[in-house]
Amino acid sequence: MIPFPFLLISLPLIGLPTVFCEHSRWQTISYGTHSPPPADAAEFLVLDTGGSGGGFGHGDIRQHLQDVHFWNSQVGWTAGYGGVFRTRDGGLTWKRMRPQGGWYHLEMSGPQEVWLLEGFHGQGKAKLWHTTDDGEQWTEIASETFKGYTDLFCRANDRWLLCGGYPSYRSHDGGKTWKIEHTGGLLQNRSKIAIPADVQTPEGYMIYVLGDQGRDLRLIRSHDSGRTWSVVPLPEMPAHHAWQMTFVTSRRGWLGGPQGEILFTEDGGQTWERRDLPTGTDQRVMSLWFAQTGHGFVSVENRNFAKRRDTLYETSDNGKHWWPVLGGVKSVNKLFGMGPGQLWGVGTVPDYVPNDLVAILKPRG
Q: ∠ CA(304), CA(236), CA(147), 5° rounding?
């Protein structure tokens, strides 16, 4: 399917917004603004998984936590280059359950059941691991099947594994059998998947997959649990693997770009608004998390420890206004929330002696 063309129109009148026109559908752009932090701005407890420094190869240096997932307010997992870790106290302390490696994604599908995706950079190779006993034993799933590792998602008995430009896979039976997912042939590369937690309809549930077709960023959608797919029109954006995505409902979602761009829709992608991070924020968006109330957080890459820039921004109005809530020598790679008041971020501290990072949202008041 050929994506619809977009026409960029600049209005000469001062004070009027720039708009996109796509087949008579006007898409207003309203840029996010920098606001001073309110009195009740979020505060975070900043910890790590317990590594230690040391010169000449000594010590237990951990860095670049890539993913985090919690089953409830106490039990959760995180994974990165320094290993795979489990917590039973809400993230205050962690136990290493797997050694150092290329651990990129994980999902919990039960209080003791975890899916873990291992990638081998530059080798066209990935391994999917599974445990049902809280990480004591691991089984490799569908050995020698997967080639890429761009995203992993679990919902009920469905398992999705996106593999970039390699074939992506889906399981309908809890990971017992896997089939190639072609997504209607509408994407050359598949990078991110979002399945909003809406009530299922007779046709099934909504699925969004973000990727690219040629040089263009492309978003596709299925309204019937993946049986059929269609292209969701986007403002013209260059393809880039760094784009991130989240949808809190089937109609309200956000995309985050490689230079602080934020695209927002509240009608399932019929129209989009630009709600970029504050002017001067040209860092890559790493993760987005929003509640249905409009309260949300966006993290950006901050791996240059000499600049000491902000890494985490907060909003209370779906991104119309932003303020920084975490900065310094920190970079948050992934956010995970369980509703208002429960949010975790993981990443890295890019200092002379690097270490990993765990940020826990403090209760207000």
A: 65
The answer to whether the beta carbons of residues 9 and 28 sit under 8 Å apart is no
Segment 207-265, tens digit of pLDDT: 999 999 988 999 999 999 999 999 999 998 877 888 999 999 999 999 999 999 999 99
Q: What is the pLDDT of residues 22-50, one digit of tens each?
A: 433 445 555 567 778 899 999 999 999 99
Q: Three-state SS across the chain?
A: CCCCCCEEECCCCCCCCCEEEECCEEEECCCCEECCCCCCCCCEEEECCCCECCCCCCCECCCCEEEEEECCCCCEEEEECCEEEEECCCCCCCEEEECCCCEEEEEEEECCEEEEEEEECCCCEEEEEEECCCCCCCEEECCCCCCCCCEEEEECCEEEEECECCCEEEECCCCCCCEEECHHHCCCEEEEEECCCCCCECCECCEEEEEEECCEEEEEEECCCCCCCEEECCCCCECCCCCEEEECCCCCEEEECCCCCEEEECCCCCCCEECCCCCCCCCCEEEEEECCCCCEEEEECCCCCCCCCCCEEEECCCCCEEEEEECCCCEEEEEEECCCCCEEEEEEECCCCCEEEEEEECCCC
Per-residue pLDDT tens over the stretch 285-326: 999 999 999 999 999 998 776 677 899 999 999 999 999 999
- pTM exceeds cut of 0.70: yes
What would you measure as the largest C-alpha separation in the chain, in angstroms? 65
Q: What is the pLDDT of residue 189?
A: 96
Task: Residue 3: name the closest of 250, 232, 199 by CA.
Answer: 232
